[in-house]
Amino acid sequence: MESLLSVRDLRIAFRVDRKNTFEAVKGISFDVPRNATVALVGESGSGKSVSSLAVMGLLPRDTTLIDPASRIEFDGRDVLHLSTGERRALCGKEIAMIFQEPMSSLNPVFTVGFQIGEVLRRHLGMNRRQARVRTLELLDEVGIPDPATKIDAYPNQMSGGQQQRVMIAMAIACEPKLLIADEPTTALDVTIQKQIMALIAQLQRKHRMSVLFITHDLGLVGEVADHVIVMRHGEVRETGTARQVFGAPQDTYTQALLHCRPPLDARPLRLPVIADYMNGQLPPDPPQRTRGYTPDDEIVLDVKNLQKSFWLRDGLFGKREFRAVKDVSFQLPRGKTLGVVGESGSGKTTVGLTLLRLHKATGGTALFEGRDLIAMPDREYHAYKRRIQIIFQNPYASLNPRFTVGQILLEPMRLHRIGADDAERVALAQALLARVGLPPEAFHRYPHEFSGGQRQRIAIARCLTMKPEILVCDESVSALDVSVQAQVLNLLQDLQDEFGLSYIFISHDLSVVKYISDRVMVMHQGAVVEMADADELYRNPQHPYTRSLLAAIPRMVDAGQGELR
Questions:
Q1: How many C-beta neighbours within 10 Å does residue 401 have?
Q2: Torsions phi, psi of 193, nearest 5?
Q3: Contact of 336 with 297, CB cutoff 8 Å
Q4: Predicted pLDDT at 556
Q5: What would the pLDDT profile of 480-504 be if each residue is shown by its tens digit?
Q6: Alpha carbon 280 to chain centroid distance?
Q7: Distance of CA 199 to CAs 10, 167, 260, 280, Å?
Q8: Rounded to whole angstroms, what are the CA distances from 408 to 9, 375, 403?
Q9: DSSP assignment string, 364-406
């Protein structure tokens, strides 16, 4: 099959300081055939995004070292030896890229129509009227509702899925020969994720593009990729057709990536991680964990008819009520996990924030040890505050970058007078760091010096300093690599077993929710549409919305049959 993109012996290093360099890509070679979809798969730090940025010429020139023997050929042209002007003309027109975070890639001060039109004016020489007509066609093609209105909207006025569709419209505006999609569905709802994947596959067939799809999730690309390239630590570990790689993976690392995600048909006591496979320590028949509520469970939190409304501006002087949470009721037993699922805007995060009084409830009760957390005065609530903690989705945004990890852990203990003195608090903080799997030297380092999974462990340790009884986990593993996700889920389960913690686990990842939850609550447009024990809900969903969520879960490969499922 003829190659559109050919990468040969690509070696990329970055200057760390005047004397030292770090080799991020170590002599990789691969091809992207014409009119085909190739998946580049690996964990963070594997070098997959660096390789794609080298194709686009977006790596920083002052700190990047590309080996002179490396070659990147696109449609017969040596990309690495093009002039700046030639590279600029090529990228955006014949090679386009969809980035991971659309809100960071779209300019917040320009309308989406202006930004798509800018591509058309620069690369195709269209005037403003022609560009606007074509932009409307593109917005309609990628499934943006009411393009005539949305063309004049700003990025912050659109949902995450719509922002990503705008990025796709911008990328296909000049009908490129190669589309690079770098983690385009990370942290999107499972239904939106499936729509974006289907849209990219549809556009690939319609425009006969080649697609290089970059992701850390093998299960995600099983339905769209023709070829798969697996990378780790800057090296290619395995290549082959999707059926070969998914059905009969040869490399141990590929096998580990396929099995680190929580399975839907089992619930092992402990999820396997990459190290288990690489060290040959995986038990042949792992013990299973039973889940579910029982009549003898001690109820630690009883929520009835919880409501939360926001008032939005309507016209020049008017206001209208938006009911984000509508009469939500549930019970949370001690030592059990309630999973909360639903798309963005369903109200699941608002429920968690309202229970912690980060939002003021409009109505309802939340009884904790017979006391209503919603109605009690602020002075009384202070004593309960440490007993209900939250782990946020983005630990880098929730950890103070000016504080060391030690300061981050000591601050809440001082505020709540936990420990007799600082010496006792330091000892507790260091013990908690060890408990979440971080070395002692982490105490004196800053958040930016850690990986995403390590930062999430710091956030968990901070919560544990309060010795809480309830933890609200708000999308706490959604943006992590599958192996790091498995490590954090194992940690959460170990902590629950050891301390009897109760979790409200909020997520859009239904396979993760099924693994860790005893009961699952499905929310849609602020209301609870279904609630049942995890196994029963996944086995026999009653509500059409629940069935649509379950149908959108990416299907992996049956290794025994070698077929996509």
A1: 9
A2: -60, -45
A3: yes
A4: 55
A5: 778 788 888 998 999 999 999 999 9
A6: 29
A7: 31, 12, 27, 40
A8: 44, 30, 6
A9: EEEEETTEETTTS-HHHHHHHHTTEEEE-S-HHHHS-TTS-HH
Helix (H, G, I), strand (E, B) or coil at 58: coil
259, 319, 304, 265: which is closest to 284 by C-alpha? Answer: 259
pLDDT, tens only, 403-462: 999 999 999 999 888 988 999 999 999 999 988 888 899 999 998 888 777 888 899 999
C-beta pairs of 547-550 under 8 Å, 24+ apart in sequence: 548/191, 549/190, 549/191, 549/341, 549/342, 549/343, 549/510, 549/522, 550/510
145 pLDDT more than 90: no
| Strands 3-15 vs 71-74: parallel, antiparallel or unpaired | antiparallel
Instruction: Give which of 509, 477, 511, 514 is closest to 492, Cα–Cα.
Output: 477
Rounded CA gap, 232 and 43, in Å? 7
pLDDT greater than 70 at residue 9: yes
The model's pTM is: 0.83
- For the beta carbon of residue 455, count every other beta carbon within 10 angstroms: 21
Of the candidates 270, 266, 335, 216, which has an alpha carbon nearest to the alpha carbon of residue 489? 270
Q: Is the pLDDT of residue 98 over 50?
A: yes
Name the one residue in this structure whose structure tokens are 């080996």. 67
- Residue 480: what are its φ and ψ, rounded to 5°? -95, 150
Predicted pLDDT of residue 558 = 44
Tokens of 114: 């202006």
Does the pLDDT value for residue 562 go beyond 60? no
Residue 249 corresponds to which amino acid? P
Q: In whole angstroms, what is the distance from residue 6 CA to residue 2 CA? A: 10
Distance CA 275, CA 178 (A): 35
Beta pairing, strands 388-391 & 470-474? parallel
Which has the closest alpha carbon to 356: 322, 387, 395, 326?
Answer: 387
The two structure tokens encoding residue 559: 């290794």
**Four-CA torsion 398, 371, 417, 399, nearest 10 degrees:** 0
Predicted confidence band of residue 336 (pLDDT cuts 50, 70, 90): very high
Least confident of 141-145, 179-183, 256-260, 319-323: 256-260
Q: How many CB atoms lie within 10 A of CB 540?
A: 9
Residue 561 has pLDDT above 60, yes or no: no
Cβ atoms within 10 Å, residue 276: 19
DSSP one-letter code for 157: G
